[in-house]
Design a protein that fits this description.
single chain; alpha/beta; Rossmann fold; six-stranded mixed β-sheet; 5 helices
């Protein structure tokens, strides 16, 4: 591992801790206001309006919440969620909250329904992240799940969702990192 690569990894580790602390300190009312703003902007985005097959994520406690948005839209559009299989993500149709089961690896709710076999159907991917910058670069948790899945979906519109404090001056980028087309924040 080169010295530069090692310093990027260390910087990312420090950045993840810093963002985690900011999330912990973020006031609940402000959080709810930003979530409403993000949901409204996402609903009004032309890519969302035009898409019928959308990959989203069921948010973990420290991510931009998506539950209400998914529940509002899954009967109008085909909303898919990722399912962790080993080191990869498979894509399954969301068929209602009652169809969710605890994921094997992280315990994140995952759909137990129909697997999407033709991933090229996906017109849009809504992506979580730890941090983003104004060049639409994204830093995830470090496991690379989304970078691998985004590589398989070059034609899908990639939209990151973030709280305002997750926007930083510059995300450290490595060759495997895939930028977003747009980052929607609650600011």
């Amino acid at each position: 591992m080169s010295m530069k690569h090692a310093s990027i990894i260390q910087y990312k580790k420090e950045l993840r801790l810093k963002i985690k602390q900011l999330k912990y300190e973020f006031p609940k009312e402000k959080k709810q206001r930003e979530v409403r703003g993000v949901n409204k902007e996402l609903e009004q985005h032309s890519a969302f309006k035009d898409a019928t097959h959308i990959l989203m994520y069921w948010a973990m406690a420290d991510e931009m919440p998506t539950r209400e948005f998914i529940l509002k839209w899954y009967q109008h559009k085909n909303i898919y969620l990722p399912v962790v299989k080993g080191d990869d993500l498979e894509i399954f149709l969301f068929e209602g909250e009652e169809s969710l089961v605890a994921g094997e690896k992280y315990g994140i709710p995952e759909p137990a329904g129909e697997k999407l076999l033709d991933e090229s159907k996906l017109e849009m991917v809504i992506v979580p992240g730890v941090a983003f910058d104004n060049q639409n670069n994204r830093m995830g948790r470090g496991a690379g799940y989304y970078d691998r899945i985004l590589k398989r979906l070059p034609m899908a519109k990639k939209i990151g969702l973030a709280f305002g404090f997750q926007m930083i001056d510059e995300v450290p980028v490595e060759p495997h990192d895939i930028p977003m087309d747009v980052v929607i924040t609650g600011k």
